[in-house]
Specification:
Shape: globular
Structural class: alpha+beta
Bound molecules: adenosine-5'-diphosphate, magnesium ion
């Protein structure tokens, strides 16, 4: 958007709409309401985590014309909380209200083929490449796949998350079989890389093209799902952190992004960075910002979409976030339903519990997260280890 089309600043008292009613929408609603905005959530689920705390809840499918019309009548601006909201829905809303991020940016982020093409285009400006890959959309794309991409990971271009929609393949026969099992939908085959770790950067970019960022996070995944995020001095080498920030900003600039964007990176064993994927919204790895920074990623989402100033979000405390998956609600051996030991966890200093109001715990389902802040990296690591042990989680400090 050129400066000439920058929408007017929306002050508290306006109504902010969000597509999607999951936990990210809920935390956005909390941030918006704390600042005096009214909120409207569109989500088909009448019991969605964000819908239950919002002033308005439009129960409709994302492409339902009446639902979209209602949202655009209620809201003075609209954002999104998950990347699989149909880009057409955002494009149609944009005819009536400012929408950030825009449909095009979301369309790129929700399709690994377009996303990787964007990363490759940006590689010179960003200084960070993506993994070597091939696009597989048709049968005749299988044979020319370079041998160097095996062993590799076949990923569906669309709708993958938390490790779903991907499979490791070591031979051409396995590749063909996996692609057939995925229903021959468009996919990318990525070289499997020797990872030493993973990190991510959250950038907020305004309508005027100015951006700010949080310090990069170091992330540990278990079974393809984010388990632990750690952000303190020494959690990443300084040069690596700087490189990740520069790349994330270039990636946001390259699509004229407006809103909060998370860019995820692999750290290779030789220290090089590889850009993995981006999420056009706040991200699970940024939840620590609620308690450890002067301004959370959700407040920056509000500021970016309303045109309020984007201040540099200083981190005031070292932090660790432990994701709380539904598995914690089942006893380890018997599998019987249990309530995690919240009172004992909250007796530890610097623990901040965030639960998303989901009534049914299922294994692998994100139910909440625990932020731990403290005066030093050693202090937060020690409390994180105690909290993990009380919750029956593996020792997070081993990451
Ligand atoms: P999702 O959308 O499910 O998060 P990702 O592409 O981020 O999909 O993959 C999930 C996890 O799988 C990553 O966080 C990483 O741990 C592992 N992974 C993905 N791609 C590769 C790769 N090319 N090489 C090694 N590990 C990978
Ligand atoms: Mg990922």
């Amino acid at each position: 958007m050129s400066p000439a089309t920058v929408p007017p600043v929306l002050l508290p008292g306006s109504t902010l709409g969000v597509m999607g009613g999951g936990q990210l929408g809920r935390m956005f609603v909390h941030a918006a309401q704390a600042m005096g905005y009214f909120t409207a959530v569109l989500d088909p689920d009448p019991d969605s985590p964000a819908g239950r705390v919002s002033h308005h809840h439009v129960h409709a499918d994302y492409l339902d014309g009446d639902g979209l019309a209602r949202l655009s009548r209620l809201a003075d601006a609209v954002t999104t909380e998950f990347e699989n909201v149909p880009a057409e829905a955002l494009a149609s809303l944009a005819g009536d209200v400012p929408v950030a991020p825009g449909a095009e940016a979301v369309a790129i982020a929700q399709d690994r083929i377009r996303e990787k093409a964007h990363f490759s285009r940006c590689a010179e400006a960003s200084g960070v490449p993506c993994a070597p890959y091939a696009v597989i959309e048709r049968e005749d794309h299988l044979a020319p796949v370079p041998a160097a991409l095996l062993p590799g990971i076949l990923k569906t271009a669309r709708l993958g998350y938390d490790g779903k929609g991907q499979r490791t393949v070591t031979t051409r026969a396995e590749l063909a079989e996996a692609w057939a099992d995925f229903g021959r939908v468009p996919c990318v085959l990525e070289q499997r890389l020797p990872l030493a770790g993973e990190c991510s950067v959250i950038v907020a970019r305004g309508h005027d093209g100015r951006s700010v960022h949080f310090p990069p996070q170091r992330n540990l995944h278990r079974d393809g799902i984010l388990a632990v995020t750690e952000v303190h001095e020494g959690s990443l080498p300084a040069a690596q952190a700087q490189q990740a920030v520069a790349a994330a900003r270039a990636i946001a600039d390259g699509i004229g992004y407006v809103g909060v964007l998370c860019v995820e990176f692999f750290v290779l064993e030789d220290g090089r960075l590889i850009v993995n994927e981006m999420a056009p919204r706040p991200h699970n790895s940024g939840h620590y910002t609620i308690d450890a920074c002067e301004c959370s990623q959700f407040e920056l989402q509000v500021r970016a979409m309303t045109g309020l100033p984007l201040v540099v979000p200083r981190q005031h405390s070292p932090a660790i976030m432990l994701n709380l998956l539904g598995d914690l609600w089942f006893a380890p051996v018997s599998g019987r339903p249990v309530e995690p030991a919240w009172a004992r966890v909250l007796a530890l200093s610097g623990t901040h519990l965030h639960l998303y109001g989901k009534t049914e715990a299922r294994r692998g389902r994100k139910m909440g997260h625990l932020n731990i802040t403290g005066p030093s990296a050693e202090a937060v690591r020690a409390v994180a280890a105690q909290a993990a042990s009380l919750l029956g989680l593996p020792d997070s400090t081993a990451c």
